[in-house]
Design goal:
The structure holds two protein chains of two kinds.
Chain A: H1 4-9, E1 17-18, E2 21-22, E3 24-25, H2 36-49, H3 59-78, E4 87-90, H4 93-105, E5 113-117, H5 126-135, E6 138-142, H6 152-157, E7 165-171, H7 183-192, E8 196-200, H8 204-207, H9 212-215, E9 219-223, E10 234-238, H10 240-243, E11 256-260, E12 263-266, H11 280-296, H12 298-317, E13 322-324, E14 336-341, H13 346-355, E15 358-359, E16 361-363, H14 368-373, E17 379-383, H15 390-414
Parallel strand pairs in A: 3-15, 5-6, 5-7, 7-8, 8-9
Antiparallel strand pairs in A: 1-2, 4-10, 9-10, 11-12, 13-14, 14-17, 16-17
Helix pairs in contact in A: 2-11, 3-11, 4-5, 12-15
Chain B: H1 3-6, H2 9-17, E1 29-35, E2 40-49, E3 52-61, H3 64-77, H4 82-97, H5 106-109, H6 122-141
Antiparallel strand pairs in B: 1-2, 2-3
Classes of the chains: A alpha/beta, B alpha+beta.
């Protein structure tokens, strides 16, 4: 049984009033709010157990190391990795994707192809542009259909994935359109030509139970702060056999085996990819967030997310002058709902909604090429999470209708 | 500060009407400025007539604040000499950065005083400055000698 009141009580920030209205936080695809126990876990780490990891031999060092490596085990179990050695901690999903693009990019040469999609977040786009520029490889991408799904037919027809393809990297769930992409199908296609399959799980992992084997990918990037964890901690999961073959990303302490002035050897994964002091307290916080989400249950959370999304699509879809980007039904669809409102720029809408306590994001959501492809300059995006209620969605819909009138009826009067 | 005070009728009117919009020739320089965080963008051309700004023409897309501010700016500077236009630039910028502490001079800024309320919303100041920054850049690129400004240090 989904206990909305109990869940909301875990998030003190939801009690806030903004501009005289109860906060309606619908910007969770940007960053999620944090339950009290995550904040307390970070606090307890700093106040009771703080020390550096791995290299400090005293009691606190052992405690900090156990907490840090314990978080790695929790993350591994959360995504059903075979071993915690497959979990690389980074500072965010962007760094995880840069790690993937840099290390895989070292193998690329002119004539090779990398395939992404036009719906990617800039963090799964720019690193591959850099890798292609450095190696002379060619960047290609999936287009989308009018309803915001990957155009698999066109890709098949054009031979998008072929014997020259070395890497395919696609978002599991779009941060703008909400589309859930058929990662397994694309992974099988990539593997049939010997390519490595990477997925950006930034939106998918917080919303769905994750099984890296079922997804069929070789590398999966995601971030802690979108799944109730702290900022400053991201994850790259990788198949161990692949990680073992990859060169280091950043050099420094902790990633080495033997260092001589003439040259060094490197630690095995995952430490090979974790140069310097890692985000220790943040990893502990992420572990606490995973404990919290496991108690809620990811399948129950996903069902709630689908329900909220459907309610949002119904409510916004029924308004005059509102156009939803991406799939109009909550089928194979995550929790981000982006839309444009006739006569109201997303910035202005965001401001109007904020005056009523409703927090949404306006702009291109770090997906400028996708907006160009959709022929819209920018959009507004509402995104709920486990703490979102149907009443909050109603408040959003009412505020959007008011915002439309605010601009359009006044403009008509004054002309 | 309510949104009604922020979005005054003057701003909504200029947002709808966009005075002097459309790109015109001939022109001395053309620039393209964007706010990367939000996607406001403007392509702006300036044409000089001696020491006077003969014409400012533009093609812009963005929020009501950026669009209305550019429209008001064109009303103010077209036909005005460069030195006084840049003095207006400084006055407008000072008002925007004052967080509401500077009482604007209506005789000088005309419809521009409607943006005094925007100064209360730091995230929107960049929107209001977009057209003005583009104008200053276009004048420099057109080879016009500008009086010293705080912007020169940036």
């Amino acid at each position: 049984m989904w206990n909305s009141a109990a869940i909301r009580a875990d998030f003190p920030i939801l009690d806030r009033e903004i501009n005289g209205h109860p906060l309606v936080y619908l910007d969770s695809a940007n960053t999620s709010q944090k339950p009290r126990e995550v904040v307390e876990a970070v606090e307890a780490h700093y106040l009771r157990h703080n020390a550096n990891v791995a290299r400090a031999m005293h009691t606190l060092g052992a405690e900090a190391t156990a907490a840090f490596e314990g978080a790695r085990v929790k993350v591994a179990e959360f995504v059903h990795a075979r071993s915690s050695d497959e979990i690389i901690f980074t500072k965010n999903a962007s760094e995880a994707l840069n790690l993937a693009a840099y290390t895989l990019g070292r193998r690329l040469k002119p004539g090779d192809e990398v395939v992404i999609s036009v719906m990617e977040h800039h963090s799964n786009l720019v690193p591959w542009q850099l890798a292609c520029q450095a190696s002379g490889a060619t960047l290609r991408w999936f287009d989308i259909t009018d309803d915001g799904r990957l155009d698999l037919e066109a890709a098949q027809r054009d031979g998008l994935i072929n014997e020259r393809t070395k890497v395919v990297s696609v978002a599991w769930v779009s941060n703008v359109l909400g589309t859930i992409n058929p990662i397994r199908q694309i992974a099988d296609w990539a593997h049939s030509v010997g390519a490595i399959m990477v997925a950006d799980g930034s939106q998918g992992v917080p919303q769905r139970a994750t099984d890296v084997t079922a997804l069929g990918v070789d590398l999966l990037a995601f971030t802690g702060h979108k799944l109730c964890g702290p900022t400053g901690i991201g994850v790259l999961w990788g198949h161990y056999d692949l990680l073992e073959q990859l060169p280091p990303f950043l050099g420094g302490g902790e990633m080495i085996e033997v260092v001589r002035m003439e040259g060094s050897t490197y630690a095995p994964p995952p430490h090979r990819f974790e140069a310097g002091t890692p985000p220790i307290a943040q990893a502990v916080g992420l572990g606490a967030a995973i404990d919290y989400l496991n108690r809620i249950g990811m399948d129950a959370l996903a069902a709630h997310e689908t329900e909220i999304t459907a309610h949002m699509l119904d409510g916004l879809g029924a308004l005059d002058g509102v156009h939803i980007l991406g799939p109009a039904e909550a089928v194979d669809r995550g929790g981000a709902v982006s839309f444009v409102v006739d006569g109201v720029h997303p910035h202005d809408l965001m401001q109007l909604l904020d005056s009523r306590g409703v927090a949404v994001r306006g702009g291109h959501h770090c997906a400028a090429p996708l907006h160009k492809r959709l022929a819209v300059q920018s959009s507004s995006r509402a995104s709920g999470y486990l703490y979102t209620t149907p009443e909050e969605v109603d408040a959003l819909v009412e505020a959007v209708a008011w915002g439309y009138d605010f601009f359009n009826s006044r403009a008509r009067r004054s002309l | 500060m309510s949104v009604e005070q922020l979005y005054q009728d003057i701003i909504i009117d200029h947002y709808r009407e966009k005075h002097h919009s459309g790109l015109r020739a001939p022109f001395g320089a053309e620039v393209h400025h964007v706010n990367p965080s939000c996607g406001d963008e403007v392509t702006l051309r300036v044409s000089m007539d001696g020491d006077t700004i003969g014409d400012v023409s533009y093609d812009a897309e963005g929020c009501s604040i950026s669009q209305a501010s550019t429209s008001v700016m064109c009303d103010l500077v077209i036909g005005r000499d460069v030195a006084d236009s840049m003095a207006l630039f400084d006055e407008f910028r000072d008002m925007m950065e004052s967080q509401g502490r500077i009482e604007p001079d209506e005789d000088r800024l005309e419809d521009g005083i409607a943006f005094a309320g925007v100064a209360q919303f730091p995230a929107r100041v960049k929107c209001a400055m977009l057209g003005w920054s583009a104008l200053r850049d276009a004048l420099i690129r057109a080879g016009v000698e500008l009086p010293a400004s705080r912007d020169d240090k940036e």
